[in-house]
Amino acid sequence: MPAPFRIAVLASGAGTNLQALIDAVAAGELAVDIVGLFSDKPKAFALERARAAGIATTVVSPKRFATREEHDEAFFAAVDSAQADLIVCAGYMRIIAAAQIERRPNRMINLHPSLLPAFKGLHTHLQALDAGVAEHGASVHVVTADLDDGPVLAQARVPVLAGDDAESLGARVRTVEHPLLIETVRLLAEGRLRLGADGPRLNGVALAAPLQLGANRRLA
User: Fold this and answer.
1) Distance CA 111, CA 88 (A)
2) For the domain that residue 64 is a member of, what is the CATH number?
3) Given a cut of 80, is residue 15 above it in pLDDT?
4) Given its phi and psi angles, is residue 179 left (phi above 0), alpha (psi -120 to 50 degrees) or beta?
5) What is the pLDDT of residue 50?
6) Looking at CB atoms within 10 Å, which of 22, 41, 42, 148 has the fewest?
7) Is 121 annotated to bind ligand?
8) 112 part of the active site
9) H-type helices in the chain, by residue range?
10) 220 assigned to some structural domain
11) Which contacts (CB < 8 Å, 24+ apart) does range 73-81 have?
12) Where is the Formyl transferase N-terminal domain (predicted)?
């Protein structure tokens, strides 16, 4: 029997995406081993979620370091000790130094609350409202040295409704974030979706466009 696919999760806040992964594993819907939760915030509730699930936790606070580069060096040394096949940024709010990403090419993915390449960075729901778009959503992409700029693997879409504010639109996006992340990780764990120097490939074929989450909560 092959060894379980190992994922390390990075989170800075409440950890709802981590909880979705934990629940999917517990329900037998996702065959991965979550080998660690790594955070830059000692009080992040994600840590409590991980501990409750018996997942090892590590906190590396940036307050202990003089520079971002020094923090990232220590943080990712801890991540590497978990020997994960995939690093999942699920609400990790720090910009990662380019050197750390370049040492781990095609091993990190991030869940971003917009339909990339639109609305990179923060306050994406407000950005979408200000732009007057009819559709918004979430993306899972490969982490590269440029902010929110790596190849987009999968997306989930929601309508922007009349009367929406950033809070209501964000709540609608969150309903699709969890299945989007779970299904993307599933394809990677199964080896059907592969990341490489020549770009992502699905079943051996170059991914021409991001996969889309359907009403059945599956990617196609």
Assistant:
1) 8
2) 3.40.50.170
3) yes
4) alpha
5) 98
6) 42
7) no
8) yes
9) 16-26, 45-52, 68-81, 98-102, 124-131, 166-189
10) no
11) 73/100, 75/38, 75/40, 76/100, 76/103, 76/104, 78/38, 79/8, 79/10, 79/36, 79/38
12) 6-185
Q: What is the mean pLDDT of residues 28-54?
A: 98
> Which run of H or E residues covers position 193?
strand 193-194
pLDDT reading at 172 higher than 70: yes
Q: Retrieve residue 216's tokens.
A: 């059945």
Residue 55 marked ligand-binding: no
Instruction: Tell me the residue range of the domain where 160 lies.
Output: 5-212
pLDDT above 90: percentage of residues in the chain = 99
Is 218 domain-assigned? no
Annotated binding residue at 106? Answer: no
pLDDT at position 1, please? Answer: 64
Residue entry with tokens 């997306």: 155
Q: pTM of this prediction?
A: 0.96
Confidence of residue 3 (pLDDT cuts 50, 70, 90): confident
Phi then psi for residue 205, to 5 deg, are -110, 135
Domain count, the chain: 1
Q: From the candidates 112, 125, 136, 141, which is the catalytic residue?
A: 112
Answer yes or no: is 219 within a domain.
Answer: no
| Domain assignment present for 20 | yes
